[in-house]
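Many introductory courses stop at the sequence. We go one step further.
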Amino acid sequence: MSLLLSFAPFFAFAVLIHLGYVEAALWASALVAGLLLIRDRLVLGRSLKILEIATLLLFTALALYTRATGQDWTIPAVRLVVDAGLLLIVLASLAAGQPFTLQYAREGAPAEVWDHPRFRAVNRTISLVWAAAFAVLVLADAAMLWVPEIPRRLDIIATVLALVGAYKFTARATAQASGPA
């Protein structure tokens, strides 16, 4: 559940941009990301997470850029940038050998399994599935931006299917990994 909560800034962004206030959506999403970091660290005593720190930086940088330049984003353009940023965060965590899901998984697993090859492999696979889902979002955003004739509902369907699929895969893989070795 902690992993899903980490996506709250992106959910807030998705809702708020459709009200037509892109810069406000960016600032609000940065605020949500900051509040999650404070909650995790100061209230719950958890470690800071790569995803949450990078999300705060992503939304803050985009909000500052938008304020400084007066960038007039279209919804598909700003979604493309945000979703591409999310994809890059996940890919960077994989490239660094620290899949972003590893930090969340460690919170629910005993310390003696953290360095086990199976534990790391499951987290690498789950992170790759989320990367694939975010790649679908980026492709859907790009299609909406550069091929506006595509019905908006196809973008929504692709986004929902990708995210629900990644969530279901995560739940199933986590349940299987928790079972007997």
